Amino acid sequence: MTDDVALAWAYLSRVVEPPCPALAGLVSRVGAVEAAERVRRGEAGEQVNSIAEARREIDSTAADLEILQRLGGRLLTADDDEWPLLAFTGFGGVPDRMRSQAHAPMVLWAIGPALLDEVAYRAAALVGTRASTAYGEFAAADLASGLVEREVAVVSGGAYGIDGAAHRAALAAEGTTVAVLAGGIDVPYPAGHTALLRRIAEHGLVLSEYPPGTRPARHRFLTRNRLVAALAGATVVVEAGARSGAANTAAWARGLGRPVCAVPGPVTSAASVGCHVLLREGARIVTRADEVVEYVGRIGELALDEQRPTSPLDELSDTEKRVYDALPRRGGRTADEVAVASGLPARQVLGPLANLELQGLVVSRDGRWKLSCG
Amino acid sequence: MTDDVALAWAYLSRVVEPPCPALAGLVSRVGAVEAAERVRRGEAGEQVNSIAEARREIDSTAADLEILQRLGGRLLTADDDEWPLLAFTGFGGVPDRMRSQAHAPMVLWAIGPALLDEVAYRAAALVGTRASTAYGEFAAADLASGLVEREVAVVSGGAYGIDGAAHRAALAAEGTTVAVLAGGIDVPYPAGHTALLRRIAEHGLVLSEYPPGTRPARHRFLTRNRLVAALAGATVVVEAGARSGAANTAAWARGLGRPVCAVPGPVTSAASVGCHVLLREGARIVTRADEVVEYVGRIGELALDEQRPTSPLDELSDTEKRVYDALPRRGGRTADEVAVASGLPARQVLGPLANLELQGLVVSRDGRWKLSCG
């Protein structure tokens, strides 16, 4: 990216509140440099002129790019090889109430060694309430470390609670984790996560659609959530109260046609109410990382069934089971007595008795049978 | 029921291991008295003769009926008004591996004031592992008491753990509860539930397909489970390990076309693994009694949505929210500053500011606005 192109993108990133399809349309028609110039001169057409009116005379682009450079970051746009074009498809399918935000980002401010297209190729979003419980944090950490073990990147929002637990566990397992912020990449939010976000930027990726200095605001969290959902193959809500932003991220995932998963929890926990509502509405239940991998992984990458304890009795026929059940632990029963107890004809009990004896499950002495464990 | 008819049914109940469609067919063709006579004489046709061979000479019917009378019980068959004929439909739909047991019962031994048809009209099965946790027992009790408050009977198997918690809570709430046993009604099982089963028999109903004195056996638990599922409009698995009989009851419910529900629990709890497997396989998640009532209740009896906390900000338009978010708590911003912060044209912020002020959410002084909570 040459300097003038970077300056143009930086200007375009700040001059409107993203996402702004009208401006994106102009850029795709005339290019970033020309679009920036037209907006600046108030010659960008009535719609864009109006949208950009309040900010068009602000030009902090040089300062913005200096901050970006100081942080070791980069600007990403659809012109970059690293731009995950496929991740940003599907916005056409979202419900009406989300339509105004349902557009791909135009510019992403990024810091970190991970390449965005590689991340988006194989990532899961782990999201949830800031008011998490120890249970939820454990579940988030367990899933995150299981995912990175299977080379799945963990995308989240950098918030307290579930987000933080997921990022931390991914870092601890030396995996890739991505925090998508609702403010500028130079505005660590929450402030208590300054060190965590710095570590994510060192080892993974910190992303924002907003230029440096932008404060997080309510609507920006919701707009940000669409990027969390879009960058992941599936979104997992780990814990969520009755009213949690995580439900919004889940709605984006659903709108984008990506699987929505939820982790169950105690019905007595307010922090799991939102997960149970999602499950009731059709979200997929996940309890282990490999169940999540099923949804984000390559085709055929299926979770193994839960290990089930087995018993030698599993292999018995129904008749053998009835005969087995009719035998005492002590003493012993004759074949006729076994027939009565099992309700089977006497001639039908001798075969099963012999089989059971062969398998070491029953023993006989003097024409009487009993269980071998007796 | 006259004495000879009762004697015949009691004989038929013991002479084969239920369910026995061949014998049931004979009974429906020639009546109980004649069928009993033919079986006794070995003239019941080759198939029934063979099945009944081991037990046909045993006649403890008079003693059986005396036990029943002493316990204050009654024999129930399809000839009784109380027989819940509709509950025993749907056996044709079960998978092959369950086919041999997929038949309505012929005789039920019953003790208790509740009428079986009334119970079956509006009942839920609450089942689960004997190795329950305090959480599972709480959930079972909570559901049971919520169900009986809504006049739904609680059907279970009388076992330790989840079954016992469900029965006890239903009794404590003065509701109707039904225990279906895998042995004779005079064989309290488990022995530690002798007093509980007596209380169920006093206030609800204790049922068994097996004649007095029959010991519970492994295959009888599985056969019994089909009755638990059949007598309930829906089956709820409250807690179940990876290998629990509750999954068998759930399979019966599914085979009979009744809803299967499961209560979620911590992913860290072995006692919830079976529930999560069921949920993964399509069982419906339930967390509160009124969600269960939806499945067993009359049409239109829907659970209310989980109460969601609300905020005055919920009602704002997107533009109003953006303006609100752009206002400081202290100090104050001019309309132009609000326009820049929100990214909205200056002329579009005055209307929202006025609306927000009318709603008491913002205050203005000397041409500057701030949040009213500041």
Structural descriptors:
WH-like_DNA-bd_sf (chains A, B), 9-stranded mixed sheet, DprA_WH (chains A, B), 374 residues, 3 domains, alpha/beta, Rossmann fold, 16 helices, two-stranded antiparallel sheet, Arc Repressor Mutant, subunit A, DNA protecting protein DprA (chains A, B), homodimer, DrpA_SLOG (chains A, B)
Task: Offer a concise description of the structure.
Chain A is an alpha/beta fold. The first copy, chain A, has helices spanning 3-15, 21-30, 32-41, 46-52, 61-70, 116-121, 134-149, 162-172, 194-203, 218-230, 245-255, 273-280, 289-296, 318-325, 335-342, 350-358; strands spanning 74-76, 108-111, 123-128, 153-156, 177-181, 205-208, 234-239, 260-262, 284-285, 362-365, 368-371. Chain A folds into three domains: 1-59, no CATH class; 71-296, Rossmann fold (3-Layer(aba) Sandwich), CATH 3.40.50; 312-371, Arc Repressor Mutant, subunit A, CATH 1.10.10.10.
